[in-house]
Every structure is written in structure tokens, then in C-alpha cells.
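# nightly structure sweep
# worker-07 picked up a monomer target from the shared queue
# config: single-sequence mode, recycle default, output format = C-alpha cells
# input follows
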Amino acid sequence: MKSEHVNNDNIIEFDKMHNNQAYKYNSSEINRCIMCNDPPCDKACPKNVPIGDIIKSYYFENYIGALRRSIDSNCASCTAPCERACVLSKNDMPVRIREIISNIDGIKKYLPKPFTEDVDMSIKMCGIKLENPVCCC
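# output follows
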């Protein structure tokens, strides 16, 4: 039986989000990240933006967590010392962190509201924090 009313405030619109340019760019760029255990990009950030946590949240499809962590980042005007500190910058092109953080706001319209609700569904497995418990299945 089909429901007459669906509460769209609680649904992530994946089909629309996956066709969004900001999402496509972020996904391809985040896949280049090697997910450092102790990210040098975090230490290099003058604004103390939790870059490693944002990238891991996004990678494991915790888009709300990524958005929540990047809300007050204001990376657009930054000189991006985090990118120079990226391990990939030694032999290759660094992950474009500043663009990733700036683009995260572009997917906000596809996320449930309120996206700022503080919900932590992460678990620790063998001492490693997993933000998406579905990965354990």
C-alpha cells in the first residue's frame, strides 16, 4: 500500500544528490585521500577545522556529520596550508581540501532537516572509530 504522505524532512535525496556537481567533485577528490591516522592537514589548519573527520564522515556517507563539522569553517578565503601539509603533496597533487569543504554546503539541500541535530552513531571496533555502523555488517 502506498503512503499518501511522505515526510521529506527526514529523507536524504540520494538520486538528486548523486547528480549534483559538488557531490561528484567531492566524491572523486575524497577517494584520493589516504585517510591518515594522524592527519597532517588537521595540524596545519589555522582555524582548527577537523579536516580528517570531515573527510572520513563524507567518505563513509555520513553527510550530516561532514556538514555539521564544516559549518563554521570559512575555508574559501584561506590560503590552504592544509593542502601543502597533505601527504599526497610530496609526490602528487594534494587532496583539494579547501574546495571539498566549500562544496559540502552544496549538498545541504539534499539532506534531512534539521541537519545540525547532534547524533553520534559511531562505534569503535578494534580501537578504530567507525562512523557508519552499517560497514560492520
